[in-house]
Amino acid sequence: MAISFFVQGAIFALLVTRIPALQDRYGISDGLLPLFLAAVPILAGVGSVSTEHLVKRMRPGLVLRVVQPIVSLALLSAGSGTTVWQLAVALAVFGLTVGALDASMNMLGVSLQRAYGRSIMLGFHGAYSLGGIAGASLAWVGAHWDLPLPTLYAPLVAVLVPVALIAGRWYVDHRGDHRGEHRVDHRGGEPTEVVRDGTTVSMRALLPLCLVMAFAYIGDSTVSNWSAKYLEDVLHSSEQLATVPYNVYMVTTLLGRSFGDLGVRRFGAVTVVRAGALLAGGGFAVVAAAPSAWVGMAGFTLLGLGLCVLVPQTFAAAGRLFPGASDAAVARLNIFNYVGFLIGSPLVGALGGAWNYRAAMLVPMALVLMTIRYARSFSPVPAGYGDGHERPRTVDVG
Q: pLDDT > 90: what percent of the chain?
């Protein structure tokens, strides 16, 4: 599983870090580029929703084995075409399959954590961060040596596709046999999905985790899209120094996830999530008030250490909340990954342009700190929950 997370991190980084090269290759205008970029997460959300229904008929491991090579080949196609319509098709395939990949990959991670009986999700997402660092580094090499995109992508995809296929032979779905009977129940006017063992997936119960997921990705997209501009335009750093914060953020994300599972085992998920939200909120505050570029980079360092725990623990909490229907819960929760990604960058850009970028940083800070309100939703589910018993009040959004 860790290999799958690593491959996905590398592939995604190889796409997003070479967007300027894709724009130049296809002659896409600055006005048209945001439409292409927005289409990918929108289609990924569609892919995630489709996966919820697909895994009723096949196991997530099989879905993952099929879609991960397609994602890699879609990356190669995006970098190898010559006309805009070819790029549009490649990115459409990439978006749909990356949504299915993210959903099925986290479904497997959640089921494996339940089988192990201890926190391991942060380690999987740490492998994703490591893959992202590797992919971004390779993209830098390609840019430094001015390699054409097909020359950069082809040998990497030629390696990553067989690696993913070989690793897929050992995917194991550790979950109960609850695929056979699905129906829709509208008890109390609220649509829920009922599986054979009586477990229901209620969006009201899942909503706190969905909000945390969206808040985390609003924070993440703020760093990835605005950290360089913030250092250069607001804190008056050099162009070279402005490229450093995102790399520092990725490294601290990897470090935090490498040791985060130990923290969850010792202190519990609720404490780790609260600490992560406080660190991330403090990081945004430092960035907003920073008098110099170096202080700003310290803020981005805190952001990486804080935000890194939220997403893996949110997936894990969904699995605990709906142990008999964790696949459906993860697929629905995964949609808010893309919601946060779509909202974050435009939100900060609009506020920065209309107001100023220091004040704009306070908005993702406030949203991340709201995670503390929902931290109880990360607590262990009471014994007996998941077999039709009353829903615990810790997941109620009031």
A: 56
